[in-house]
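chain below, 576 aa
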Amino acid sequence: GSALASPHRLILRDTYNPPLSPYDYTSPLSSMRSYIKDHRDDTLLTITNLPAGTPVRLAVMDWFDGSVWNLSDSSKASDCANYQRVGTTISTDERGMAFTATFTVHRGLTDAWLPLAGAATGVQFLGKDENSPFYYNRDTNSAILPSGTSEGLTYIESGIIADTPTDQQISTAKAANISQPKALDVPNAVSTLASAAAGGQSRGGAAAQDLAAMLRSSGWFSHGLQNDYPSAAGHGNYRVNALLTGTTMVGDSEQYASAMALMARELGLPSRVVLGFLPKDEDGDITNARGKKTSGSGTEITFTGDDITAWVEIKLRNLGWVAFYPTPKESKIPDDSQSSAPPDPKNLVRQPPVPFIDPLRDQTQVRGQSALSGTDAEVASSDESFWLQFHRAARTAAIYSSPLWITLTVCVLILAFKALMIALAQRRGSPRTRIAAGWNALRTLAVQSGGIPLSGTRRNQAHAIAHQFGIANQALQQLGREADYATFSGRNITPAQSTQYWTSVKRLRTAMLRSMPRLKRFRTQLSLRGVTVRIPRQSRSPSRAEILKTGSAGRIHRTSSTSRPSRASRDNRHQY
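prediction:
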């Protein structure tokens, strides 16, 4: 029977290609510095007939695990994981300028990421690689070649270059609503600086523009290679935190792209990091002058290792993924004669707009104090009839007695009263009392939002507030410990300490309000719940058990010669 068996067997594993898992590949962004270090002046890629000023992408990353940016796997339901094997023709919904360009890979560009431009509609490999299978992602317009790129690889791409939106279109666009993998272990400085850069006012595309502009204007450039200004490698949480809080804000596109993408996430903007080639000039800006005429009628552009760059894409409604370039000019090298420190978040917060003047309350107009002269000047009539004056008075009374004005007036009075109470709490009493009042300002805001009750230790309250508003628990716990220390330690508390404490309190109050929906935020700001002031009364000194209950015994130093604040000090309620 065995003699009749066919000598040829069909082995499924020899013909079946398992699904591609991009997460199995090393972070593309981690290899950026090695390309620049080892092939800074080497030709890595040559392209003919590519439209001038067109970026070429290698990989798109949407997941930050605290150490690197990488492509998420399919379990995270992310667009960046949707790589599918395709043939020579690729479907796309992109609209824009059509092109056909020929790519040639040179020595040094050896990776699984296939360089492509725009949205591909077809890729044809030439020579020995004409049957090479490759995987394409229509959501990120990027491709993976499992066999890897190598010297001599040549292929023709046809595709579409999408139209670039104007700055005005970007600034008025809202953020798209999509699901992305959660960024892990993001430094606190990212959220603080992002909120300050956006000023708590700009949203969507305008906020993304603010982030990119702040990093470009405040940062300095260096690859950190030999003879460069010192700049550490990497783009994880430690490196981003050093970039935003260190003594010098310096790095290259690897660090700035990582920082901006994380800051955008903190503001609710869908973001991802792109690695690719940019046709740059000496400043690192995109230029149309890099292409050279070939012997025929076409153009040719050559990319070196120094052209490999990272940038950020933000998804906006009706505009799709929009590119932002937050890296400072490459000619902007740190100078000892100028400050190169990261920006202070307090200095980035925008000033309030000029208050609106109601024409009916503008005394200049009411009194006829015109700035004009001669025949154009307004002359007040001294012989107006009684009925004309009566009509004006009745109209004014009708306007200001309407329910709308009454409601607005009440709202303004409530806001003014609460602002006055906050101002008094910062200045009234000893520094120790002011710090206690600062904590109560945080606690009362939480109560006015309809959340936690006024109970438990400051540690418990901090945990409840952090859980309720989704803000950093560590910052709240620190303020709670400082308030306990000021209340129970018996040590001298300086005015500078209370001023710094209130600075942190204001920052957290702003973060708490910003985390609420707009209507709930408005109700909270107008809430009078808990707006009382209890006058502290003298009482016994707290026992050691009561002190330990605050959770800050490790910071309390008691001496027999120092008077202790009474337990009533702990109950001094400055609520707003």
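Residues 167-272+326-348 form one domain. The mean pLDDT is 79.
thats it, cya
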